[in-house]
Design brief:
Layout (H helix, E strand, L loop, with lengths): L4 E2 L3 H7 L2 E2 L8 E2 L4 E7 L6 E8 L17 E3 L10 H5 L3 E6 L1 E6 L6 E7 L5 E11 L5 E11 L17 E3 L1 E2 L4 H5 L4 H5 L10 E5 L11
Parallel strand pairs: 2-5, 5-11, 6-11
Antiparallel strand pairs: 1-3, 1-8, 4-5, 7-10, 8-9, 9-14, 10-11, 10-13, 11-12
Length: 218
């Protein structure tokens, strides 16, 4: 499942998504615990706006930020029942996660090699996300999010990733014409109608080994 992905720059949000960017600088690649932009509708429901949130959903009852290491993805099949996600799902707290590409391990050489999955035209795109927020003891508002995932055993591209014995999973690409409908979905059935596999003709995978990095917690 997706644990790191590339972030678009603010100008990409403004141009490609007609979205008001978040006033904050972000790392070029996000990992669990990092801050990254998510897109939601403004109060009038007329335009996308970006807000900063932590990658890895933090439910109100979580004791600390370590939970982000296991909540960066939410399985669509169980999201309505899992304690970490069920409140956000029930409240329809959906978001869009803007990205230039996301990373998955490919084992076709016998060893895990990080590959990047991106659009063929390399333009930014948006993933289906679930968001949460809570008030910290110091009064600060903490916003967080998770990416929704679906089964990809039969997908020609996404079935190439993860260990051979593991179920194949994929994040959900939301096409531009569905942005507002996804964000405004009012029922379980309506929301699940948008959880579909990406068009394999529009995406490609390329080997992109990760450089050494130092983990930074938020």
């Amino acid at each position: 499942m997706c644990s790191n992905y590339r972030l678009p720059v603010a100008t990409d949000l403004a141009v490609d998504f007609d979205c008001e960017p978040a006033v904050e600088d972000f790392e070029p690649v996000a990992y669990p615990g990092y801050r990254a932009p998510v897109m939601v509708l403004n109060r009038a429901g007329t335009r996308l706006v970006a807000e900063a949130a932590v990658f890895g959903l933090v439910p109100p009852w979580a004791k600390d930020m370590k939970i982000t290491r296991s909540t960066y993805n939410a399985r669509s099949e169980t999201v309505a029942e899992k304690p970490a996600f069920r409140s956000a799902w029930k409240k329809r707290q959906f978001c869009l996660v803007p990205t230039l590409g996301f990373y998955e391990p490919n084992y076709e050489t016998g060893k895990p090699v990080r590959w990047q999955i991106r659009r063929v035209d390399e333009k930014p795109f948006a993933l289906a996300g679930l968001r949460e927020w809570r008030r910290e003891p110091d009064g600060r508002e903490l916003r967080s999010f998770s990416m929704l995932t679906i089964n990809a055993d039969e997908h020609p591209l996404m079935s190439r990733f993860h260990a051979p014995e593991d179920e194949k999973r994929s994040v959900v690409v939301v096409p531009p014409e569905d942005y507002r409908a996804w964000l405004g979905a009012e029922s379980d059935e309506e929301a699940r109608a948008y959880l579909k596999l990406m068009d394999p003709e529009e995406f490609e995978g390329v080997a992109d080994p990760a450089p050494p990095r130092k983990r930074r917690e938020t």
